[in-house]
Protein 1
Amino acid sequence: MFKVLVSDPISDLGIQKLVDAEDVAVDKKPGLSEDELVAIIGEYDALLVRSQTRVTARIMEAGKSLKVIGRAGVGVDNIDLEAATQRGIIVINAPDGNTITTCEHTFAMMMSVARFIPQAYLKTVGGEWDRKSFVGVELRNKVLGVLGMGRIGSEVAKRAKAFGMEIWGYDPFLTEERAEKMGVRLSSVDDIVRNADFMTVHTPLTPETRHMIGSAQFEVMKKGMRIVNCARGGIIDEHALVEAIDQGIVAGAAFDVFEVEPPAADHPFLKHPKIIVTPHLGASTVEAQENVAIDVSEQVLNILRDKPFMNAVNMPPIPAEVLNKLQPYFGLGEKLGSFIAQLTEGAVEEITVNYTGELADVDTQPLTRYIVRGVLSHHLGSDQVNVVNSMHLAKERHVNIVVQKSHEARDFTSSITVKLRSKAATRLVTGTMLTGYGPRIVQIDRFPVDVAPEGNIILISHNDKPGIIGNVGMLLGNNNVNIATMQVGRELVGGSAIMVLTVDKGVSKDVINELVKLPDLNKAKEIKLV
């Protein structure tokens, strides 16, 4: 039974799938302090939060069974991602659940700052009929600069076009081709700062984006700019913005986020007549809160049940079309890694993975993580290594990872070859997916074979002479070891050969030692693939 802790207020409908799961127990305990979380987190497999709970390295260290942290929202500023990655804890979020909601709030803020709606409302309900003080501007024919053309930024751009705005977009991953398809002018931050009438930011808060709009940008900014921030506090330097408004550079600003939330009572935004603020409402709709919780709950359930998952923020995202192609190979890749690790003696120095055929056309980075996980699990334990931290652990141990690709697949549609180099030797194993048969090992070192990568395997190196197979079968039979399948691989008649046996149960070291003593048998190794 998996245990899930929900430490922030999250929609009941959103976590219903977890509550209904027969193999999951859900505890809702919002408002816990760090000390309180540390005291109880050790008994939980998963933690679900929104923005209130700060998931620190100390909490994760106490979470000995913690496999996944789910953030019911987009931002993960409140989660120590480096600590999670080091401990192999998957951090997931819900990047799509509040896209439309945040986009719509951005437009509400943009319209409000263009037409002084909150200020006019306050005067009107206060009994003052003042039309002259609130002469606004139209959105039509204005240049809107969008900093960050991800999901939300793209939706904002789409709607802004309907208002007749000209869109200038900046994003480090925005290509000329994609910008053209969207009807967006691909621009730099400096281009937008100097030319836009309105600017809205939709980037994550990182060391690179912190204060990306500051004093230097305000000095060259087009006079009369109006700025909207519904992304993250800190992207725009708050104090520099106030100075720019007071100097007449910026005509107005609308902020849903602050560098420190909630802001101090004397924060200059709160009483400034040209700044509109809301208390981080970008994702605060009934639909969004339910959607993000549903999305996160589904992925948490997949992770706990060891099924493919999406939206891990401490792993590269996998597009759906790529996931569909790679998913059948995940189990094979991990078992190839485990197989070659058990086969190789000495400290691992380098892992080389060669993808051939159709796999050469796919981003195989996610699959490489599974292979490296298989290799390292043999040395570090399966409970210490997963697809999140496998590459980090390899780097930490100075294990070089080399990935090669070739479109020549020879006898198979696709294949994976894993080569392990240690101080003692270099070993190789190749696997593929055979239609109707599933995953198969088709080569071990230079010998062709056909073996299902599962269960208990005995790998024997011997001289190709009559009687070897009989002697091995008799010895195993005398020790009550039943052979399920047998494969023999050789290059030349009478030369070196290997024998691959799958057996119904594990064999003792004594039996392995007896095998090695047989005439013309060179080495014997037991390999377990669970």
Note: The first helix runs from residue 16 to 20.
Protein 2
Amino acid sequence: MLRLFKWITTGLILLALLTTALVYGVLSISLPSLSGQGQSQGVSQPVSIARDALGTAVVSANNRVDAAYALGFAHSQDRFFQMDLLRRNAAGELSELFGKAALDLDKKMRFHQFRKRASKIVTQLPERDQQILAAYAQGVNEAQAQSYPSFEYLLAGAERQPWQPVDSLLVIYTMYLDLQTGNFERDLVLEQVKQQFGDEMLTFLTQPSQYQAALDGSEEPIPDSDIPELSLQLKAQLAYQKIAEPLGIGSNNWAVTGALTESGHGMLSDDMHLSIAVPVIWYRAQLNYYENNQQHQITGVTLPGAPAVVVGTNGHVAWGFTNGYLDTADWIKLDDAVATYDVEEQYPIVDGTTEVAALTMSDYGPVKEVNGQRYALSWVAHQPYAVDMELLNLEQAHSVGQALEVAKTIGIPVQNMLVVDKQGQAAWQPTGAVPARINPSDVAVDPAEYSVLWQEDASDLPQVRNPDNHRLWTGNSRVIATEQLPRFGDGGYALGARAVQIRDRLNEKERFSEQDFYQIQLDNQARFLTKWHGLLISTLKQEPERFARDIKDLENWQACACPDSVGYTLVRHFRSRLTDTVFSAVESQLSEHDLSLSAIKNNLETPIWQMIAAQPSSWLPANYGTWPEFMLESYQQMRDELLEIHGQSRHASLQVLQWGKVNELRIQHPFSKQIPLLSHLLDMPRSPGFGDSYMPAVQKTGFGASQRLFVQPGLEENAILTLPGGQSGHPFSPFYRAGFSDYVQGNNTPLLPTETMHQITISPLK
């Protein structure tokens, strides 16, 4: 028996070693070759792709079309699986990779018909743009032809499909889904609030915030709204129900004119806030090419799947984006007189089967039914001007004025673009697709209110250029003047606390360097939560002996989202718990229709403080006699649940609740989430949490600054660009984690490429 046990043990060890060797062997042969010579019919003249120690792709070509081929080749070598996910996500075709588990998501995405829209748009683009997309696609496919499938395809049991020019437009549509879905989800929630609770509740829940930082200083007045009475039936539903926090997808950017820099050049900071995974969404690149007898060098970040530098500098101007949150969607309430029709959609599954389902469409847009009422979605992403390749034209702008002119017709989700130039100018302008219709609405409208101007791109975009205070900033809250709000609407603006803090930081100095800008991006001071901290301290001091250890941690909270702060965690979660419980009756009603206050949770800050001040009895949960008692017990329950989540008893030390542990940065590969054994191989090292939502240093467990850029055009040698991950999506690549440590430690990583480590040269096929 002992000998048999030894044989079995030895066999299992050998099997494990063999499996490990097989996995490593498969991974090794799928590594792309980064040095060598090649030939292709896809280029008219020789091109090269060099890579430095970070894996930055440095493309050199004699024209823009050949540069697109080379960038497609580089993207494909390092990020093809990521590109595949982006196009399939927008098209609703993930079931071909992941099977029926992705079918519901595919149906949700197919609602928008993006592949059909992209296929039509790509044929209508200017000839030069079509050539660039075709060359890019050829570069992608020829790189794939020279490599084995990456491990993701082997695990999924799926085949790689060739890249098509239309797929690059689908990648842009994926950004619409990430950046603007909250707009139409918000409107649908507000429509249901109106239907179920009335106009008084709608007005109460959508009051403006006290945190406002429009560039012109204009403020929306906060009305002295009455608190609606809750019926006894609704009051019975006042029990804790978690309202998910919106990710707050958006970004920070700010700029100063040359009057505030030693060089006299304008200076830009940009950090785009997105979900962070492995690989990180952005890809470092530099494009060098000739056009119109001029040499061009553009350095920044690209989006794998698209042939453009999204954010960066060309030595003359530098530009950056944050999500604009203008209102770009409306729901049309359909009556029986409005005709609809069904479209049959087929969903191929990776196992070879096909699912068939119908979508209901109308002349106003795709149709959704909620609580027996049909609504059609009119969204800018459904319009023919929503996507194009005009972002490419920013590469050749030589001044702020030229950049602003180019940016008026760029087909991307509307962004706050900040642009600076080496002459010292700086400007802000909404950039991207904005409908020309002038009657945006937060709730559904009747067909008679629908405007044919939906079919036209807006031409009346505002701008601020070289302001008197020499400072510009955006942080996803309202940037436009109050008087412009009826025209451009509210597509889900951020609360505003972050933008206020950035503005105030900029007003603290009269001279700025790249390092000064970096410190603002890393600012995790908890100015927004100071008021909540005071409320919690005063609440717990009603029973000082019972909460002695809590009070001690709160008094030492450091007023920041610092890794070792327990007090910050307690304040942060107390705010969420109290808000969620107070509005649980509304949330409960909405959840019956698969809707949630999550879509408007930022709006609840003003109402919750009115509740705390007035302490209305109709909003007090039935189990409590007073609001102070309710707030005490809400805190106690929140703290005990947090301890339990982190594997501790309610009497354990609170040190396990340090913010750096509770909000630990965990950047994961999609496959490691499903197969935890792969985590060590695929994920970035875990790092203590160092920021939060309502401060410049935005960071959650898998969300935050997807890049950090600081640059003065013309002085790129001083510029900084950090990313929370490496260039390559291959875990054996030396670039897989390159640059990550600089990101988490707040160190400087140069924007410009360093010494060449690898180079591929591709010549025309003779």
Note: The longest helix spans residues 165-197.
Protein 3
Amino acid sequence: MLVVDDDERNLLAIETVLEDVGDIVVARSGEEALRHLLKGDFAVILLDVYMPGMDGYETAQIIRSRDQTKRIPIVFLSAVNKETEHLLRGYSMGAVDYVFKPVDPMVLRSKVAVFVDLFAKTREIERKAQQEQELLDANLRANAELLRAEQDLRRAEQRQAAIIESLPIVLYLEPLTCDVRCPTFVSGNFQTITGYPFAEVLQEPTLWGDRLHEEDRERVLRALEERAHTSKLSVEYRWRCANGSYKYFHDQAVLLSDPEGVPLEYAGTLTDVTERRALESQLVHAQKMDAIGKLTGGIAHDFNNLLAAVLGGIGLIERRANLSEEHLKILSMTKRAADQGSELVRRLLAFARQQQLQPTPVDIASLHKEVNDLLSHTLGGLVELDWHLPEDSWCAFADRSQLELALMNLVINARDAMPDGGTITISADTQDIARGNKLNLEPGTYVRLEVADQGTGIPAEIADKVLEPFFTTKPVGKGTGLGLSMVYGFARQSGGTFSIASEGKSGTKATVWLPQTSSIEEDTATSKPPKMVEDRRKLSILLVDDHPEVRETTAALLRELGHDIKEASTGAEALMILAADGQTIDVLLSDYAMPQLSGTDLLVKARQLLPNLPAVLITGYADAEEIKERPTDVAILNKPFNPEDLAATLRNSVQRAEISQEQ
């Protein structure tokens, strides 16, 4: 209650009368009363009519003009002016009642109590209304949250269903006992994976068992029998789908039981692992080919050393011995056999991807004439070549001679697959390869060469073996088994790949992918090495080779050519000779693959002693990546070599070094 009066005695009297009715706030002027009204709310205002300054009428008028206070009841206190006109003025200013002084305590208490009770009840109603509103709001929020939760659950279920539908997985439930297989429920993507609607499976209980692969049937049926004892199943098998193709399925199941442990049914998944098995097969094949490649490269290295010694020795015999015609014939046959061995080693290195290639832009259209000329006397009259080459000039970035040899191998294999004759189709186009492709190629544009025949095809049981070296289906003496493996190694080393596909007896398609490049005419003035003049001078040569027979044979050949030779069996021994007598050495001739210190490492240390020392590296292994690290002025001579190549390489190396020093 707000009591407004300028007389302290009146304030004290009213406080005494109303102290047990409610809380009292006193104001001694109209201005002070207005300040209290700004701070709080009141049940009733007891307002003296006559006060100095702002009187009661003016104060009441201001109270009624404000939205926050116009509803508060005002009771005027007056000692005079009981006339009707004064009463009407008070009521017009917003008064609800008059109390005349001197105040009757009983009357005042009764009138004020009514307004206090009304205020309290109003507050209680407002509080209850607020509580009800809060409960309503809370209920609305709970309903909204429940609706959102239901929507989220529905979306999650839809996502789960979509994910399950997109995966190569079938979920199923199956009774404890049934004839072979009799699922009571399968997920919706069953038809997508198998090609059969579930209703058809229910109508034909034997369908599942009938379409098992013959080689897997016994093993799978045995696993199903064991399921009853082990309460679980995990087996992979091949199953023939509706389109006739076989897929690999991984079938897993566990036993479901009720809370008391009583078995109810089996819950399982049927997963399509066909792609995974294909990738695993590719990985195993790649690992096997890599291992064979490493083994092949090592064999080729040792074989090249032996051939170098054999051919070098034959060359010395030809030069030194005065043989009869019969003996020369035997020597010529021996040399031919060694040359054939050298060609075999080159094929081994091609498979192992350790041959040295000299890739250049190769115009695919220009291969037509060269390959035709090479094969014209080989194919016979029953086989015809049908070329489908582009009108546009496409260039593959590859070693031209090796590409021609690869095409020849593929064409000859196609001819052998058509004993009764036929047409071999050779076609070419370009293909853009994206990232993450199944060919395991870097993204880019590739030239695709395809050789297709109409022959007997490749039996499925040997399809995975045809790229292995030494594997051949030809009779003994009719093939080495290195043709396709050489093509595979060449393509991979060139930055491409090779595949072979065959469908039963409808022929075979062999495809080579090679990186495409633009046709760039080389500047002959800068691309060709400087012309070397004939040079018969006597050279001082430091020969380094850890293989005694090869070193001795090579030294004998060099002496036969009129050169002075100093020999070293290790890189360390060669460095000692260079440190002691290096100024007299004209050229360093070193094997590449040596223990402790390789040919390139020896060359680096030798150049630290003699910066301008000419050098030639000999290799029977041709590890292209490491040999590429040699200086550009260092030549490479492949084992086995003939005396003419050896002499020319040494002479050119010395002359190139002299030209470089003059410049």
Note: DSSP finds 20 helices and 22 strands in the chain.
